[in-house]
Amino acid sequence: MTDTGVDRKLLVEWEDPAPAAARIPTMPGIDYVRGFLDGSFPMPPIARLLGFELTEAEPGRVVLECEAGEQHYNLIGTVHGGLACTLLDSALGCAVQTTLQQGQGYTSIDIDVRFLRPILAGSGRLRCEGTVTKPGSRVAFAEATLVDGQGRLVATATSSLAVFALQ
Known about the structure:
This protein has 167 residues and is α+β, with helices and mostly antiparallel strands. It has helices spanning 18-22, 29-37, 45-50, 81-97, and strands at residues 52-58, 61-67, 104-115, 125-134, 139-147, 153-165. It is built from 4 helices and 6 strands, in the order H-H-H-E-E-H-E-E-E-E. A 6-stranded antiparallel sheet has the order 1-2-4-5-6-3. A hairpin with a 4-residue loop joins strand 4 and strand 5 (139-147). The model has no long low-confidence stretch (mean pLDDT 96).
């Protein structure tokens, strides 16, 4: 191993996610998601761990962003596909959440991901847009795209998500 003289550390801090999650049954999905956007709720621990943030939310659509870095690298020296998949999965779920009525929840049934090009620490700010293609009372469908800082498409995903009553 070579020593580059660069001190590489990552400190991850997060807040208890339970108080925000407890609010899910009490509000429409779009209001819940916008609570993360406006800072009423702290971003969930996975977002803090991987370094992504919610930057846009409207009914049926969300945008997440992340700066890819060495901390996301796998053993072959590129950003691990798990980061891309997590961003895509999060955008898919959040997009569906924005369409739900008060008292409804969701969970993923499946996800189909296509990795189109490698992501590196120099790829720039990643932008992941999730869009609901068909809302539903029992199953919703969504798609997501992930682009790099130059606007190049690096991955796509589609998902089916089960919708259910929370009580």
